[in-house]
Specification:
340 residues, eight-stranded parallel barrel, three-stranded antiparallel β-sheet, 14 strands
């Protein structure tokens, strides 16, 4: 058995073929899709976070709305760029969203990836400290976020407050018990996957990672996951580690599927640079009739290592068709692979 969720990039544009012409379209359809996905048995609704782009950005209003409209589905991000965040305020937002969803938040965070503008976090008012990189800044903010999620008091109370204070140092409110144990780290390298395990975060690994040894993508990703699990065990955490991988998987079961995805299958991995000095490997997309998909996916080592599979969806083609995409995987692919 595997948990199966969807991952939406939340695009919109004033394009004649798009069902999401505006930001409002994307936000409202994201809520509707989460509701529909829960109804058909999908386990998770996850959303990407990007700034300075016509895509989903500040995630907590959306996560809260989804939490209020659903009752079982996990709700998460993949991922929040910590370079842009105020950890204190983020604790408040995350705690509120988690309480609204009654403890279903699965929050993916990371040090960030290249964005639409140069050093976009500077426009949000953040600068790395002397001798620090922006990646260092993101990881430092992540650790502060994790620390404050523990709910320990740290702030000196005012002796003359507007309202009575509880005894001792004050913590950030609202506090949501257990949320600290549902934070995930998006890792593009083996080293940061190990770092995530050491700091008690679950692992999110996407459709790309740094090319660290020239092997096929799914093999490198499986190696990353195994290193993460070893580090988790070595750290002595008293709870189970979770690992998600993302994939673009489309089952072709009718002519409309063939029209959209018949030519989209990538038979091989590809390579590129997401940073100037670091070569990345991008995993292939899967698009085929169910029997062929089952055969190909059975050979994906990283999917076998993960407990959660996030299916990337083309949100711009609307809620109804994306429900069909997800239903096709649940009905025609998942049972044969033991995912259901």
């Amino acid at each position: 058995m595997k948990k199966i969720g969807f991952l939406s990039f939340g695009h919109w544009a004033n394009h004649p073929s798009y069902k999401t012409r505006t930001a409002a379209d994307t936000l409202l359809q994201s809520i509707d899709l989460a509701v529909a996905a829960e109804e058909i048995g999908i386990d998770g609704a996850y959303f990407r976070v990007h700034h300075f782009a016509q895509q989903l950005a500040s995630p907590f209003p959306l996560l809260s709305a989804v939490g209020a409209k659903t009752s079982k589905i996990e709700i998460g991000t993949g991922v929040i760029d910590m370079r842009y965040e105020n950890p204190m305020y983020m604790v408040e937002d995350a705690g509120s969203a988690d309480l609204i969803s009654e403890g279903r938040l699965q929050l993916g965070i990371s040090r960030g990836s290249p964005e639409q503008v140069i050093d976009g976090w500077r426009y949000f008012g953040y600068e790395p400290d002397a001798g620090e990189t922006d990646a260092d800044m993101g990881r430092k903010k992540a650790l502060e976020f994790l620390d404050k999620l523990n709910g320990e008091g740290f702030a000196e109370p005012n002796p003359y407050p507007m309202f009575p204070n509880p005894p001792g140092l004050l913590r950030i409110e609202p506090y949501s018990e257990g949320l600290r144990e549902r934070i995930w780290w998006g890792a593009a390298s083996n080293a940061t996957a190990i770092w995530a395990a050491e700091n008690g975060m679950h692992l999110q690994s996407s459709t790309l990672k740094y090319d660290e040894n020239g092997k096929p993508f799914h093999v490198q990703q499986a190696e990353q996951i195994r290193l993460y699990k070893e580090a988790w065990k070595k750290a002595g955490h008293q709870r189970e580690a979770r690992v998600s991988v993302s994939r673009s998987i489309f089952a072709i079961v009718n002519e409309q599927d063939r029209y959209y995805f018949g030519g989209q299958a990538k038979g091989n991995d590809s390579f590129g640079y997401i940073e100037q000095d670091k070569r990345a490997i991008f995993g292939k997309s899967y698009a085929a009739e169910p029997d062929k998909l089952i055969e190909e996916l059975a050979e994906d080592e990283a999917i076998q290592e993960a407990d959660t599979l996030l299916l990337t969806i083309p949100n711009t083609i609307g809620v109804e068709y994306n429900v069909h995409i997800l239903s096709s995987i649940l009905e025609h692919v998942a049972p044969a692979l033991g995912w259901r």
